[in-house]
Structures are given as C-alpha cells and as structure tokens.
Write a structure and sequence with these properties.
Elements: H1 9-22, E1 28-29, H2 35-48, H3 52-59, E2 63-64, H4 66-73, H5 82-89, H6 92-104, H7 106-116, H8 120-131, E3 140-141, H9 142-152, H10 157-174, E4 182-183, H11 196-202, H12 218-231, E5 241-245, E6 263-264, H13 265-270, E7 274-275, E8 286-294, E9 297-303, H14 305-310, H15 317-340
Antiparallel strand pairs: 1-2, 3-4, 5-7, 5-9, 6-8, 8-9
Length: about 350
C-alpha cells in the first residue's frame, strides 16, 4: 500500500479531471463548491486542524457513484429465513478454506488468542463471514463510498459524514494513499471490514511496524479483530449460544428478538426450558431467548453474553450465529486434521 499524501488543490483538479474522463459514465465528480461540502471542509478544519485546501483537494477526487446509492437504498426483496441465510456461509467450500486459513496462520492465531482471550475460531469465523478470508474485500474506493453517502444519501447523511471525517483522520494518521483503499459500498475496509471510526478506535499494530494495515498484515488483522471483541466485553472461556429445548411452558413469553440478554439462565430453567449445549452454570447469568426459522420450522436459541458481543460487530442475530457456527465447524475440521496427521 502506498503512503498517502494530501494532494494540493492544483493536483486535485488535475486528478479530478482524469477521473471524470476515465470513470464510469454514471459517476460524477463531487463538486467542492457545494454548500454542504464547504461546510464539511470548514468543520474538519476547525475540529481537527486539517488544511482547508488539502481537504477540498481530496474531496474533488471523490466520485458520486449511483450504484452505491442503489445498493444502500434498495430494499431487500425479502428477509431470508435462517436456514437460507446459513447456507450462504456454512458451505463445505468455506469451511475447508477456513481450515486451510487457520492452519496457515496457526501460530499467529494462537498467539493473539493467548494474549486477548478471544479464541481462534472467533477470529477465523469473523473473517470468513466478512470477506471469505480476504477473497471478497469490496471493490469501491472508500473515498467514493463515503462521499456518495455523506452528500447524496439524506437518510444516513449524518452517519456517513462522520465516517468521512474519520476517514480523513485515518489517512493522516496511517499514511494511506487516498485513492488506494477499497472496501464495501458503505466504506468498510480490509479483511475484517472495519468502518473508519472502528479502524481508528479498535485497530491495532499487531506486527509492530508502526502502521496498521487491515488489508495485508495478518498480525494487524487478527490483533484488531480480537481487540474489537475485547473492547466490547468478550469473556474468555465463557459459552456463546446453545439450542433451547422448550419444556411444558410456552417459550414465547421469554422470547425477545432484541440484541440484549433480556433474561437469565435461571429464568429459562424455571420456565422448563432446557439448554442443549454449553451454558453458564450461574443461574443469574444473562441470556437472550430468540427464535429462528429452520427448514423444519421455528426453533429457539439461547444466546449468552459473548453471543451479544458478536452482535456489536454486526447488529444481527443471524450474523452472530453464522459467525459462531462457521468458527466451530472450522475448529472441528482443524482438530480432525491435526489428529489425523
């Protein structure tokens, strides 16, 4: 990755013209004279001391991308039930690739796990779901994605304006090349798909080279994902989730689809709900009971503290369960290969 420089205004104008001529027909260069763009430039100057002309030069390189607006505003055709969602990630190919990835980086994974308490299966599960172990990291320039959503998508303009601000600070801090970083249509970057604010808050220099590279440095990538989970309260050695087995009572009374441990293990036991898997022994331990649609009908699950920590990475129960199950499947494959060897 090239070191970044903040372009001068004259260079920015030249680059903007090149992008306008060479870019997709539907894209257009962001107008730095717009009132909202000028207000943004002034704000980041006042808040962070960024040079006005340098920021204007950077923003003049941004292209407004209609496909990004379509991707974020297009409503999903339907919400996938769990059994269909699971099939996207829990495939033989992804499990086998995850096992190979684990074995290739075993020493790094075990070192990070020992330092942080976040197990290898969690690190590999996250990266496997997010980017297929780095195979799918996104194709949009981060600058384009954030500028498009900050200035052309009113429903979430405030959020993406903050992320654009964070990206400019990240560029300054990490010496990134402003035109180089690519990611998702929402500006998530690298193998673990950190948005700029998460990159600045949780990414760490795992290899000690003075930079944090979430695209290429496996030491940085593993350490950063682990740090994210530790910062959000991951508890080493505690269970994550277990299938719930309703007894004579109605589990719906305790079920909640929210992202919190809204009940306790003891309350589940008291309602006659068994847990068919590892669970906290303390009856006062937090738990969340939720239902997902399996191929043979609805089934209940009990998520514990660490399960809801996973949802801090992506606010979805199905996402958290997919990460956990993929990681567990990969761990089992690695253990089998190790014993066979």
């Amino acid at each position: 990755m090239k070191r970044i420089k903040l372009p001068t205004a004259c260079c920015a104008a030249l680059f903007a013209l090149q992008f306008l001529l060479a870019g997709p027909a539907l894209a257009r260069v962001l107008d730095p004279e717009r009132d909202d763009v000028r207000a943004f430039v002034e704000r980041v100057h006042e808040a962070h001391g960024l040079d006005r002309e340098s920021v204007r030069g950077i923003l003049s390189l941004a292209r407004i991308q209609p496909p990004i607006l379509e991707a974020i505003s297009r409503p999903a055709e339907r919400v996938r039930p769990w059994h269909e969602y699971r099939q996207i990630f829990l495939t033989e190919e992804r499990i086998a690739a995850g096992a190979a990835f684990w074995l290739e980086h075993r020493d790094r994974l075990e070192r990070v796990a020992a330092d942080t308490g976040v197990p290898p299966e969690m690190l590999v599960g996250i990266i496997g779901v997010e980017t297929y172990y780095g195979r799918i990291v996104g194709r949009h320039r981060v600058l384009d994605a954030l500028a498009t959503l900050a200035f052309e998508y009113p429903p979430r303009s405030a959020f993406f304006t903050r992320e654009l601000e964070q990206f400019l600070l990240l560029v300054r801090e990490q010496g990134l090349e402003i035109e180089t970083p690519v990611g998702s249509y929402a500006g998530a970057m690298g193998m673990p798909q950190f948005i700029p604010s998460s990159y600045r808050a949780y990414a760490v220099d795992g290899d000690g080279d003075g930079r944090i590279d979430l695209w290429h440095s496996m030491d940085d990538i593993f350490a950063s994902v682990a740090n994210y989970f530790r910062a959000h309260g991951w508890r080493a050695g505690e269970p994550v989730v277990a299938p719930a087995v309703p007894g004579g009572g109605d589990p719906a009374a305790l079920s909640n689809q929210g992202l919190a441990t809204h009940t306790t293990v003891g309350a589940l036991w008291g309602a006659g709900i068994g847990l068919a898997g590892p669970a906290p022994r303390d009856p006062g331990a937090g738990a969340g009971l939720f239902v997902l649609e399996h191929a043979d009908g609805p089934r209940y699950w009990a998520g514990f503290h660490n399960f809801y920590v996973i949802t801090r990475y992506n606010r979805s129960l199905m996402y958290a369960l997919a990460v956990h199950q993929l990681g567990e499947a990969i761990r089992a494959r690695v253990e089998a290969a190790t014993h066979a060897g």
